[in-house]
Amino acid sequence: QLRKLGYDAAIYHSGTVDSSVTDWVSFYSVPLRPFDDLWQDVDILVSVWWRQIPDLIRYPVKKRFHLVQGRDKLSFPDGHEWLEQIDAAMHREDFNYLAVSAWAGKSCRDPFIVPNGVNTHIFRPTTKLSEIGKPRFRILVERSTDDPYKGFADAMSVVENIKKDSPIEIECISLQRDEIHPHPLVDRILVGTNDT
Prior knowledge:
By secondary structure, the protein is α/β, with parallel strands linked by helices. The chain contains five helices and nine strands, in the order βαββαβαβαββαββ. The protein has helices at residues 19-25, 52-56, 82-89, 102-105, 152-165, and strands at 11-13, 32-34, 42-47, 61-68, 96-99, 111-113, 137-142, 168-174, 188-191.
């Protein structure tokens, strides 16, 4: 979207660029650049992983942001050596913090909450299913079925109770098929791209 508005947006990658990176970036119409190119005149830089924060201080950037998604500390057990480093990274004075929810924002200094947006070209009022001969409700569950932080198990426990009393269909969608594993309550698995 930034490039469509005329901004020179890019994704900078600090690690090895292999197919896992290029496949992910291919969904977006932005160039992939190495961190070594950050000496160029960059106005705004947004990091998405806490371990990038200390490294990004050395680059001449006018404004630094970190996107707090709430999973940084959840990825490690209590007492792990990195937990203290994560806390320090999340409370720097020279960074601004963008959080995807109020819950995620509790882990950092003075967050600006950026709620998840809804694409109104895809999700919009339409004809009710009951009016076109499909009386079933359809529930769409997004992303990884085995990632405990995505809430799939919680969703399935709710669905199990609903299915007892109501005819519903469960569809699970992801960008990558290997993120989704068959589940007895899931009626259909959809694999798509960011363009659909």
